[in-house]
Design a protein that fits this description.
Layout: H1 2-14, H2 20-29, E1 31-35, E2 40-42, E3 50-56, E4 59-64, E5 70-76, H3 83-91, E6 98-101, E7 105-111, H4 112-121, H5 123-149, H6 152-167, E8 171-172, H7 176-182, H8 187-199, E9 203-206, E10 209-212
Antiparallel strand pairs: 1-7, 2-6, 3-7, 4-5, 4-6, 8-10, 9-10
Helix pairs in contact: 1-2, 4-5, 6-8, 7-8
The chain binds a DNA duplex through helix 8.
Length: 214
DNA sequence: TCATTAACACGGG
DNA sequence: CCCGTGTTAATGA
């Protein structure tokens, strides 16, 4: 039975957050979706009819400038949801961000109507939505701080540490060009800063791979 | 001063 | 040979 499998999957991540009845109801009414690495899950300008709950993997949230380049805002990890979808679903507006799978992602899609229903029916759901909204807001403020007050070398180091944390590995498999794109700068700068970090023995550089030490 | 752009050399796959 | 990387020189904010 597929629903039973969904139930087990949900339980792994959410059993401490939602009551049993809610998990059962999610399993019954929602569908599991899988994404490979670097797939676009939500596109800028698209309307959102379903809300994703993350079961496995990580998603990066990117803001794209009309004129030039994209900018990484933050990552979403297991047990989180996307705050943007919350506002979009409830307000029926377009998405202002793009969501891309950072690695292999498994998530469960919840219909908007259910969201609203559960807000009233389940206290844990209400808390979850409010809490995730709150934590996203904090992440966003942190992202703004990073942008406004940190220099590029600090931003780069934060980026590397975030990456390492999300993928649960000290090896970051990215080219300098890709990093430059996500931080909205040029490759020369990234190469230079990475080299500087390597000289400080904070990282080790290989081809296509950056090893984070410590 | 520091980022960007362009250009080039090196080397691994 | 192509791509990722390291470096430099010129230019601009």
């Amino acid at each position: 039975m597929i629903k039973d499998k969904n139930y087990e999957l949900l339980k792994l991540t959410y059993q401490n957050i939602f009551e049993k009845e809610l998990i059962e109801e999610i399993a019954e009414t929602s569908s599991i979706k899988d994404f490979k690495k670097d797939e676009v899950i939500i596109e800028i300008g698209s309307y959102i009819k379903q809300m994703p709950l993350l079961l496995e993997g990580a998603i990066k949230i990117i803001r794209e400038d009309m004129i030039q380049g994209e900018l990484l805002l933050y990552f979403i990890e297991r047990g989180d949801t996307c705050a943007m979808t919350l506002t979009c679903c409830l307000g029926k507006t377009k998405s202002e961000i793009r969501a891309v799978s950072e690695n292999s992602v498994k998530l469960i899609m919840v219909a908007v109507e259910k969201m609203e229903e559960w807000m009233i029916k389940y206290k844990s759901w209400r808390n979850f939505v409010l809490a995730s909204y709150n934590s996203r807001m904090n992440e966003l403020l942190l992202a703004i701080d990073t942008l406004a007050f940190m220099k590029m070398d600090e931003r780069l180091l934060k980026y590397l540490k975030d990456k390492a944390k999300i993928n649960q590995s000290n090896l970051i498999k990215n080219t300098h060009q890709e990093i430059a794109y996500e931080l909205n700068t040029s490759r020369v700068v990234i190469s230079r800063l990475l080299k500087a970090l390597e000289n400080k023995s904070i990282i080790k550089l290989k081809r296509n791979v950056i090893q984070l030490l410590q």
